[in-house]
Amino acid sequence: IPKDRLRCISGDVGGGFGMKIFLYPEPCLVVWASRKLKRAVKWIPDRSEAFLSDVQGRDLPRARQMIEQAAAAQPDDGAIADSLGWVMLRQGDTAGGLKQLERAAELEPNDATINMHLGDAYWAVGRKLDAQFQWRRAMTLSPEPEDQRKLEAKIAEGEKALGIPSARAEPATP
User: Which residues, including other chains, have CB under 8 Å from residue 149's CB and lie 6 or more apart?
Assistant: First the structure.
């Protein structure tokens, strides 16, 4: 591909986590898909997707070590507690992961993403009503549009699984 035909945008990457210096397969697949489809292709991972696919997500023990170091340096940072909770859950440390995610929600009670993650964890461990509560709480915290769509789907799927009538359901006609 000629350089003048390729456009790659990377905003302010700041911080110490995320994809910064490594070559990953995802951008290469985007180029491949664009050529195959003969049109522009855009891939923007959300926070959870990036966490699963970037270098920390590919090496969970190293990721946990790095996040624990960050947590020791900034023990009251809710985003760090959230990240630590996710990696702990992925490693099978359910009790520790939930504890970190609950702490993250206490530290950042007005963060829609953190509340959504706590709801996801609750759902995964069978605490379905707690999950619904957290997802509904996250909806009141002005989530990003993509997160709002995800939350709406989770709430609807959760209501269906629990047999709860949807709040958006039309009233029955006699």
Answer: none
- Contact, 81 vs 89, CB < 8 A? no
Comparing CA positions, the residue from 111, 102, 17, 98 lying closest to residue 65 is 17
Burial of 53 (0-12, 13-18, 19+ CB in 10 A): middle
First CA to last CA across the chain, in angstroms?
63
Tokens representing residue 152 in the block: 């709406």
Its sign, for the CA torsion 15, 18, 20, 22, is positive
Phi first, then psi: give them for residue 81, nearest 5 degrees: -60, -40
Q: How does pLDDT run along the chain (174 residues), one tens digit per residue?
A: 677 777 776 666 555 555 555 556 777 788 888 888 988 888 777 766 666 666 556 678 887 888 898 899 999 999 999 989 988 988 889 999 999 999 999 999 999 999 999 999 999 999 999 999 999 999 999 998 888 999 999 999 999 998 888 765 455 555
Question: How many residues appear in the chain?
Answer: 174
Q: Distances from the Cα of 50 to the Cαs of 47, 54, 71, in angstroms?
A: 5, 6, 19
Nearest to 147 by CA among 158, 156, 159, 135: 135
What pTM was computed for the model? 0.67
